Amino acid sequence: MKKALLYFLAFLFICFLLPAFLTKKSVKTNLAIQNENKQENQKGTLSENEQDDSKKIEEEYDYKTYSKIKLLHKKTNEIEEVNLDDYLCNVVSAEMPVDFENEALKAQAIVARTYTIYKAKNPKHENSDICDDSTCCQAWISKEDRLLKWPEDKRENNWKKIQEAVKETKGKIITYNNEPINAFFHSNSGGTTEVPANVWGGSNYPYLQVVQTSGEEGYSQYASEVEFTNEELINKLKVKYKDIKIDFNKEEDIKILEYTNSNRVKTIKFGNHEIAGVEARTVFGLKSTNFEIIKEQGKIKFYVKGYGHGVGMSQTGADTMAKEGKTCEEIIKHFYVGVSIENL
Question: Model pTM?
Fold first, then answer.
Protein backbone atom coordinates (compact mmCIF):
# COMPACT_ATOMS: atom_id res chain seq x y z
CA MET A 1 0.00 0.00 0.00
CA LYS A 2 2.77 2.41 0.95
CA LYS A 3 4.65 1.53 -2.20
CA ALA A 4 1.55 2.23 -4.32
CA LEU A 5 1.15 5.65 -2.62
CA LEU A 6 4.76 6.55 -3.37
CA TYR A 7 4.33 5.58 -7.01
CA PHE A 8 1.20 7.73 -7.18
CA LEU A 9 2.95 10.79 -5.69
CA ALA A 10 5.92 10.35 -8.04
CA PHE A 11 3.49 10.17 -10.94
CA LEU A 12 1.86 13.49 -9.88
CA PHE A 13 5.26 15.19 -9.50
CA ILE A 14 6.51 14.05 -12.90
CA CYS A 15 3.28 14.81 -14.76
CA PHE A 16 2.25 18.10 -13.14
CA LEU A 17 4.64 19.73 -10.67
CA LEU A 18 7.94 19.23 -12.52
CA PRO A 19 6.69 20.72 -15.85
CA ALA A 20 5.24 23.71 -13.98
CA PHE A 21 8.55 24.27 -12.19
CA LEU A 22 10.56 23.98 -15.36
CA THR A 23 8.15 26.27 -17.23
CA LYS A 24 8.40 28.96 -14.54
CA LYS A 25 12.18 28.76 -14.57
CA SER A 26 12.19 28.92 -18.35
CA VAL A 27 9.88 31.94 -18.38
CA LYS A 28 12.06 33.64 -15.79
CA THR A 29 15.15 32.86 -17.80
CA ASN A 30 13.55 34.12 -21.01
CA LEU A 31 12.42 37.30 -19.27
CA ALA A 32 15.91 37.82 -17.92
CA ILE A 33 17.34 37.37 -21.41
CA GLN A 34 14.75 39.75 -22.85
CA ASN A 35 15.54 42.33 -20.17
CA GLU A 36 19.23 41.99 -20.82
CA ASN A 37 18.61 42.36 -24.56
CA LYS A 38 16.40 45.36 -23.91
CA GLN A 39 19.07 46.98 -21.76
CA GLU A 40 21.67 46.29 -24.41
CA ASN A 41 19.38 47.73 -27.08
CA GLN A 42 18.80 50.84 -24.98
CA LYS A 43 22.54 51.22 -24.54
CA GLY A 44 23.00 50.78 -28.24
CA THR A 45 20.29 53.32 -29.04
CA LEU A 46 21.79 55.90 -26.69
CA SER A 47 25.19 55.38 -28.19
CA GLU A 48 23.79 55.80 -31.69
CA ASN A 49 22.00 59.02 -30.68
CA GLU A 50 25.17 60.39 -29.17
CA GLN A 51 27.02 59.47 -32.33
CA ASP A 52 24.30 61.09 -34.45
CA ASP A 53 24.57 64.33 -32.47
CA SER A 54 28.29 64.27 -33.03
CA LYS A 55 27.83 63.60 -36.73
CA LYS A 56 25.31 66.43 -37.05
CA ILE A 57 27.97 68.90 -35.93
CA GLU A 58 30.54 67.50 -38.34
CA GLU A 59 28.45 66.77 -41.40
CA GLU A 60 28.14 69.26 -44.24
CA TYR A 61 24.96 71.34 -44.25
CA ASP A 62 23.20 71.31 -47.60
CA TYR A 63 23.24 74.98 -48.59
CA LYS A 64 22.01 74.21 -52.11
CA THR A 65 22.98 77.22 -54.23
CA TYR A 66 25.18 78.75 -51.54
CA SER A 67 27.37 75.80 -50.55
CA LYS A 68 30.25 77.63 -52.26
CA ILE A 69 30.76 81.36 -52.63
CA LYS A 70 33.04 83.38 -54.86
CA LEU A 71 35.32 85.55 -52.74
CA LEU A 72 37.13 88.52 -54.28
CA HIS A 73 40.53 89.25 -52.74
CA LYS A 74 40.77 93.01 -53.27
CA LYS A 75 44.57 93.32 -53.00
CA THR A 76 45.28 90.74 -55.71
CA ASN A 77 41.98 91.05 -57.60
CA GLU A 78 41.78 87.25 -57.57
CA ILE A 79 38.50 85.37 -57.13
CA GLU A 80 38.53 82.25 -54.98
CA GLU A 81 35.67 79.74 -54.68
CA VAL A 82 35.36 78.69 -51.04
CA ASN A 83 33.09 76.58 -48.84
CA LEU A 84 30.62 78.92 -47.12
CA ASP A 85 31.24 77.82 -43.53
CA ASP A 86 35.00 77.64 -44.02
CA TYR A 87 34.82 81.22 -45.29
CA LEU A 88 32.79 82.21 -42.22
CA CYS A 89 35.50 80.91 -39.88
CA ASN A 90 37.88 83.35 -41.55
CA VAL A 91 35.34 86.16 -41.24
CA VAL A 92 34.38 85.58 -37.59
CA SER A 93 38.04 85.32 -36.58
CA ALA A 94 38.71 88.64 -38.35
CA GLU A 95 35.63 90.49 -37.12
CA MET A 96 35.23 89.53 -33.44
CA PRO A 97 37.77 88.98 -30.64
CA VAL A 98 38.08 85.26 -29.90
CA ASP A 99 37.91 85.86 -26.15
CA PHE A 100 34.30 87.05 -26.47
CA GLU A 101 31.60 84.75 -25.09
CA ASN A 102 30.53 81.72 -27.14
CA GLU A 103 26.98 83.02 -27.65
CA ALA A 104 28.37 86.32 -28.95
CA LEU A 105 30.59 84.44 -31.41
CA LYS A 106 27.61 82.35 -32.50
CA ALA A 107 25.58 85.52 -33.03
CA GLN A 108 28.44 86.92 -35.12
CA ALA A 109 28.52 83.71 -37.19
CA ILE A 110 24.79 83.96 -37.95
CA VAL A 111 25.07 87.67 -38.74
CA ALA A 112 28.08 87.11 -41.02
CA ARG A 113 26.35 84.21 -42.80
CA THR A 114 23.26 86.35 -43.33
CA TYR A 115 25.31 89.29 -44.61
CA THR A 116 27.13 86.96 -47.02
CA ILE A 117 23.90 85.51 -48.43
CA TYR A 118 22.41 89.00 -48.75
CA LYS A 119 25.48 90.12 -50.71
CA ALA A 120 25.33 87.00 -52.91
CA LYS A 121 21.69 87.74 -53.72
CA ASN A 122 22.49 91.43 -54.31
CA PRO A 123 26.00 91.37 -55.83
CA LYS A 124 28.03 94.54 -56.32
CA HIS A 125 31.23 92.87 -57.55
CA GLU A 126 31.48 91.45 -61.06
CA ASN A 127 31.86 87.65 -61.11
CA SER A 128 32.03 87.38 -57.32
CA ASP A 129 29.61 87.28 -54.39
CA ILE A 130 31.55 89.26 -51.79
CA CYS A 131 35.00 90.77 -51.17
CA ASP A 132 37.45 90.61 -48.26
CA ASP A 133 37.61 94.39 -47.67
CA SER A 134 35.90 95.46 -44.43
CA THR A 135 35.26 98.97 -45.78
CA CYS A 136 33.25 97.45 -48.62
CA CYS A 137 31.84 94.11 -47.42
CA GLN A 138 33.18 92.33 -44.32
CA ALA A 139 36.64 91.55 -42.99
CA TRP A 140 38.40 88.29 -43.83
CA ILE A 141 41.74 86.83 -42.74
CA SER A 142 43.41 83.60 -43.78
CA LYS A 143 43.72 80.88 -41.14
CA GLU A 144 47.52 81.03 -41.37
CA ASP A 145 47.66 84.78 -40.76
CA ARG A 146 45.08 84.57 -37.99
CA LEU A 147 47.03 81.89 -36.12
CA LEU A 148 50.22 83.93 -36.30
CA LYS A 149 48.48 86.81 -34.51
CA TRP A 150 47.61 84.61 -31.52
CA PRO A 151 50.03 83.32 -28.85
CA GLU A 152 51.34 79.92 -29.94
CA ASP A 153 49.92 78.07 -26.93
CA LYS A 154 46.39 79.39 -27.66
CA ARG A 155 46.21 78.93 -31.41
CA GLU A 156 44.63 75.48 -31.53
CA ASN A 157 41.95 76.21 -28.91
CA ASN A 158 41.17 79.64 -30.34
CA TRP A 159 40.61 78.29 -33.84
CA LYS A 160 38.51 75.43 -32.47
CA LYS A 161 36.34 77.98 -30.62
CA ILE A 162 35.74 79.88 -33.87
CA GLN A 163 34.93 76.66 -35.74
CA GLU A 164 32.44 75.57 -33.09
CA ALA A 165 30.61 78.91 -33.28
CA VAL A 166 30.17 78.41 -37.02
CA LYS A 167 29.33 74.69 -36.81
CA GLU A 168 26.77 75.11 -34.04
CA THR A 169 24.89 77.68 -36.15
CA LYS A 170 25.10 75.80 -39.46
CA GLY A 171 22.46 76.89 -41.93
CA LYS A 172 21.00 79.63 -39.74
CA ILE A 173 20.34 83.07 -41.21
CA ILE A 174 18.30 86.11 -40.16
CA THR A 175 15.20 86.86 -42.22
CA TYR A 176 12.54 89.53 -42.49
CA ASN A 177 9.47 88.67 -44.56
CA ASN A 178 11.22 85.41 -45.51
CA GLU A 179 14.20 87.20 -47.06
CA PRO A 180 17.75 87.48 -45.67
CA ILE A 181 18.33 90.87 -44.09
CA ASN A 182 21.12 93.34 -44.77
CA ALA A 183 22.82 92.40 -41.50
CA PHE A 184 25.02 95.37 -40.65
CA PHE A 185 27.16 95.18 -37.52
CA HIS A 186 29.78 97.32 -35.77
CA SER A 187 32.18 97.27 -32.85
CA ASN A 188 30.60 99.40 -30.10
CA SER A 189 27.38 101.42 -30.20
CA GLY A 190 28.27 103.78 -27.37
CA GLY A 191 25.02 102.73 -25.73
CA THR A 192 22.62 103.30 -28.64
CA THR A 193 22.48 102.00 -32.20
CA GLU A 194 21.76 104.09 -35.31
CA VAL A 195 19.48 103.86 -38.36
CA PRO A 196 21.04 103.49 -41.84
CA ALA A 197 19.61 106.69 -43.34
CA ASN A 198 21.59 108.81 -40.86
CA VAL A 199 24.81 107.15 -41.98
CA TRP A 200 24.48 106.49 -45.71
CA GLY A 201 21.34 108.41 -46.63
CA GLY A 202 18.50 106.80 -48.57
CA SER A 203 15.73 104.90 -46.84
CA ASN A 204 15.78 102.87 -43.65
CA TYR A 205 15.13 99.16 -43.17
CA PRO A 206 12.26 98.24 -40.81
CA TYR A 207 14.46 95.79 -38.91
CA LEU A 208 17.28 98.30 -38.30
CA GLN A 209 16.01 100.64 -35.61
CA VAL A 210 17.51 102.60 -32.71
CA VAL A 211 17.91 100.24 -29.74
CA GLN A 212 19.59 100.69 -26.38
CA THR A 213 22.59 98.61 -25.29
CA SER A 214 23.88 98.63 -21.72
CA GLY A 215 27.24 97.51 -20.38
CA GLU A 216 29.47 98.65 -23.24
CA GLU A 217 31.37 101.14 -21.09
CA GLY A 218 33.83 98.53 -19.89
CA TYR A 219 35.29 97.91 -23.36
CA SER A 220 38.27 99.76 -24.82
CA GLN A 221 36.21 100.54 -27.92
CA TYR A 222 33.74 102.63 -25.91
CA ALA A 223 35.64 105.90 -25.47
CA SER A 224 38.36 107.71 -27.42
CA GLU A 225 39.78 111.20 -27.87
CA VAL A 226 41.21 113.04 -30.86
CA GLU A 227 43.00 116.38 -30.52
CA PHE A 228 44.01 119.01 -33.11
CA THR A 229 45.58 122.42 -32.93
CA ASN A 230 43.50 125.17 -34.53
CA GLU A 231 45.82 125.14 -37.53
CA GLU A 232 45.61 121.36 -37.91
CA LEU A 233 41.81 121.54 -37.82
CA ILE A 234 41.74 124.20 -40.55
CA ASN A 235 44.14 122.20 -42.73
CA LYS A 236 42.00 119.06 -42.39
CA LEU A 237 38.94 120.96 -43.57
CA LYS A 238 40.80 122.75 -46.38
CA VAL A 239 41.28 119.44 -48.22
CA LYS A 240 37.62 119.68 -49.27
CA TYR A 241 36.62 123.22 -48.34
CA LYS A 242 39.25 125.53 -49.81
CA ASP A 243 37.46 128.68 -48.61
CA ILE A 244 37.04 127.54 -45.02
CA LYS A 245 37.22 130.34 -42.43
CA ILE A 246 36.86 129.86 -38.69
CA ASP A 247 37.05 132.49 -35.96
CA PHE A 248 38.14 130.36 -33.00
CA ASN A 249 37.27 133.19 -30.61
CA LYS A 250 33.61 132.93 -31.53
CA GLU A 251 31.61 130.22 -29.76
CA GLU A 252 29.21 129.99 -32.71
CA ASP A 253 31.92 129.21 -35.26
CA ILE A 254 32.33 125.62 -34.06
CA LYS A 255 28.99 124.26 -32.98
CA ILE A 256 26.92 121.08 -33.22
CA LEU A 257 23.66 122.12 -34.86
CA GLU A 258 21.62 118.93 -34.90
CA TYR A 259 21.61 115.43 -33.40
CA THR A 260 20.04 112.20 -34.65
CA ASN A 261 17.56 110.22 -32.53
CA SER A 262 20.46 108.13 -31.24
CA ASN A 263 22.29 111.27 -30.00
CA ARG A 264 24.89 111.20 -32.76
CA VAL A 265 25.99 114.37 -34.51
CA LYS A 266 23.84 114.96 -37.60
CA THR A 267 25.06 118.44 -38.60
CA ILE A 268 27.97 120.54 -37.33
CA LYS A 269 29.14 124.05 -38.17
CA PHE A 270 32.77 124.93 -38.84
CA GLY A 271 32.99 128.65 -39.57
CA ASN A 272 31.39 129.35 -42.95
CA HIS A 273 30.45 125.67 -43.63
CA GLU A 274 27.91 123.25 -42.22
CA ILE A 275 28.81 119.59 -42.72
CA ALA A 276 27.26 116.23 -41.83
CA GLY A 277 28.41 114.37 -38.74
CA VAL A 278 29.43 111.36 -40.86
CA GLU A 279 31.63 113.63 -42.97
CA ALA A 280 33.23 115.12 -39.85
CA ARG A 281 33.97 111.60 -38.68
CA THR A 282 35.82 110.88 -41.93
CA VAL A 283 37.66 114.22 -42.10
CA PHE A 284 38.98 114.01 -38.54
CA GLY A 285 39.39 110.23 -38.30
CA LEU A 286 36.88 109.78 -35.47
CA LYS A 287 35.71 106.34 -34.40
CA SER A 288 32.05 107.36 -34.35
CA THR A 289 29.67 110.26 -34.95
CA ASN A 290 28.72 110.19 -31.27
CA PHE A 291 31.05 112.97 -30.12
CA GLU A 292 31.40 116.22 -28.22
CA ILE A 293 33.76 119.12 -29.00
CA ILE A 294 35.76 121.04 -26.42
CA LYS A 295 37.94 124.09 -27.19
CA GLU A 296 41.04 124.41 -25.01
CA GLN A 297 43.75 127.09 -25.47
CA GLY A 298 44.40 126.84 -29.17
CA LYS A 299 43.31 123.21 -29.39
CA ILE A 300 40.14 121.38 -30.37
CA LYS A 301 39.34 118.07 -28.65
CA PHE A 302 36.81 115.50 -29.84
CA TYR A 303 35.47 113.22 -27.11
CA VAL A 304 34.01 110.18 -28.86
CA LYS A 305 31.71 107.39 -27.67
CA GLY A 306 31.46 104.08 -29.50
CA TYR A 307 33.29 102.62 -32.48
CA GLY A 308 31.79 102.20 -35.94
CA HIS A 309 28.74 103.37 -37.86
CA GLY A 310 26.39 102.16 -35.11
CA VAL A 311 23.97 100.29 -37.41
CA GLY A 312 22.79 96.77 -36.53
CA MET A 313 24.48 94.52 -34.01
CA SER A 314 27.03 95.96 -31.61
CA GLN A 315 29.70 93.32 -31.06
CA THR A 316 30.61 94.48 -27.56
CA GLY A 317 26.89 94.77 -26.87
CA ALA A 318 26.49 91.16 -28.00
CA ASP A 319 29.28 90.08 -25.67
CA THR A 320 27.69 91.98 -22.78
CA MET A 321 24.35 90.26 -23.38
CA ALA A 322 26.07 86.86 -23.63
CA LYS A 323 27.73 87.46 -20.25
CA GLU A 324 24.25 88.13 -18.86
CA GLY A 325 23.16 84.68 -20.04
CA LYS A 326 21.42 85.65 -23.28
CA THR A 327 21.50 83.22 -26.21
CA CYS A 328 22.71 84.08 -29.69
CA GLU A 329 19.11 84.21 -30.91
CA GLU A 330 18.09 86.58 -28.11
CA ILE A 331 21.07 88.79 -28.94
CA ILE A 332 20.14 88.91 -32.61
CA LYS A 333 16.49 89.68 -31.96
CA HIS A 334 17.51 92.57 -29.70
CA PHE A 335 19.55 94.30 -32.39
CA TYR A 336 17.37 93.41 -35.41
CA VAL A 337 13.71 94.25 -34.82
CA GLY A 338 10.94 91.88 -35.92
CA VAL A 339 13.21 89.29 -37.54
CA SER A 340 13.16 85.48 -37.62
CA ILE A 341 16.07 83.05 -37.52
CA GLU A 342 15.62 80.28 -40.05
CA ASN A 343 17.55 77.59 -41.86
CA LEU A 344 18.72 78.69 -45.28
Answer: 0.81
Express each pLDDT in 256-306 by its tens digit.
999 999 999 999 999 999 999 999 999 999 999 999 999 988 999 999 999
* DSSP strand pairing (185-186 vs 313-314): parallel
Pairing of β 78-83 and β 68-73:
antiparallel
Select from 81, 83, 87 the least CA-distant residue to 109.
Answer: 87
**Position 263: which residue type?**
N
* Band of residue 10 on the pLDDT scale cut at 50, 70, 90: low
- Using alpha carbons, list the distances in angstroms from residue 113 to 69, 101, 119, 193, 274: 11, 18, 10, 21, 39
Q: Would you list the domain boundaries of the chain?
A: 66-216+311-343, 223-305
| Those residues with Cβ within 8 angstroms of residue 278's Cβ, 6 or more apart along the chain or in another chain | 198, 199, 289
84-104 in b/e form (b: 16+ CB < 10 A) is bbebbbbbbbbbbebebbebb
**282/260 Cα distance (integer angstroms):** 17
